[in-house]
Amino acid sequence: MSRTRGGGRHLDEDDIRVRARGGSKPRTRKRPKHENARTGLVTAVDRGRYRCLVDGVPVVAMKARELGRGSIVVGDRVDVVGDLSGEPDTLARVVRVRERASVLRRTADDTDPVERIIVANADQLAIVCALSDPAPQPRFVDRCLVAAYDAGLEPLLCLTKADLASPDEMLNTYRPLGLPYEVLGPDEDLDGLGTRLKGKTTVFVGSSGVGKSTLVNRLVPGADRAVGHVNAVTGRGRHTSTSALALEFEGGWLIDTPGVRSFGLAHIDPDDIVAGFHDLDEFALECPPDCTHQEDASDCAISAALERGEVEAERVASLRRLLNSREGEDDTETSPAPPGPHG
After folding, report:
1. Interatomic CA distance for residues 22 and 305, integer angstroms
2. Element (H, E) at 3
């Protein structure tokens, strides 16, 4: 410290104590090891709370701060610490997310860069499609198939409401793929479907109103998944399940997801979209580089196969619509208009 000529004090920088921001405790990049953590399965997610099954006990947990903004989804294997008793009003912490074996993703549309993870660690994707009320949606099925193949999941086609319409047209559409399927009516037993689900983690995906939650309720009595109805004017179902839920089934898991009206594929490369059409991909290999596979594409091997009658016209049209939709063109499913007031 120094003094001025008049006897007053003059402070220099050495005399000023600087208070550390946020407290005096030094920050560290070291993270706790949580060696006593127990591994659990995330069965539901609700507003920042994660329902986990830990050693057979349902536990509610929050995400530890050190995990940052990364998402935790149904199907994740996580390490949990804290109160694992499962008693009411107790809260544990998720401190680690285990490496995922598979991730099923979608985007809001084909131009949206933001991926939404639907579930993790599934083995099989059950694509639920109604044969009537609402009308079949082969384009939606095609999108789900592409997403399944991209995620490394086995696809399974579940055709519901077989009491209302014949499955023949839909089965003919997908016969070239050798796609496993189940045709389901309200009074038919589910033994065949149950056999396909046994011991696997299967995620159920479908548009609203196709009977997805009804199917889950039949497979897992007591699941009490909300069931909705189809609007007679719009032909669309009402969203009933509001969040994904994993349910134990025959040594495996069934994951019911909210009904969706779009299944964007912006996260999938165009070449991988073509690869999702197994009946067309072998012809695409003969196409010139950067082929668009559209009608005006020169020397397109898929177009040549179509002219020879070796591929189905509707399958080619579906592929072209999917590829176009990535450029912002419409790819909505069209259904017959409902009858007017005079029939």
Report:
1. 69
2. strand 2-3
Last residue of a domain, one of 62, 97, 132: 97
Cα 174-322-121 angle, rounded to 5 deg: 70
Taking each continuous run of H as one helix and of E as one strand, the counts in the chain are 8, 15
CA distance 4 to 84: 66
Strands 92-97 and 57-63, bridge-based pairing: parallel
Tell me the one-letter amino acid at 227. V
Rg value, the chain, Cα: 27
pLDDT tens sequence across 317-336: 999 999 988 765 555 554 33
Mean pLDDT of the chain: 85
Alpha helices by DSSP H, listed for 182-288, are: 191-197, 212-219, 270-275, 278-284
**Are 132 and 191 found together in one domain?**
yes
Per the structure, the complete domain to which residue 305 belongs is given by 272-325
Q: What is the pLDDT of residue 144?
A: 94
In this structure, the answer to whether residues 151 and 197 fall within a common structural domain is yes
Are 149 and 67 in the same domain? no
SS3 of 321, please?
helix
Question: Would strands 116-120 and 103-106 be described as parallel, antiparallel, or unpaired?
Answer: antiparallel
Contact between 159 and 131 under an 8 Å Cβ cutoff? The reply is yes
Query: What is the model's pLDDT at position 320?
Result: 94
Residues of the chain with pLDDT under 50: 1, 3, 5, 16, 228-241, 334-343
What is d(CA 41, CA 80) in angstroms, rounded to the nearest whole number? 10
Tally the domains of the chain: 3
Residue 325 CB neighbour total at 10 angstroms: 22
Instruction: Name which of 327, 205, 203, 333 is nearest 266 in CA terms.
Output: 327
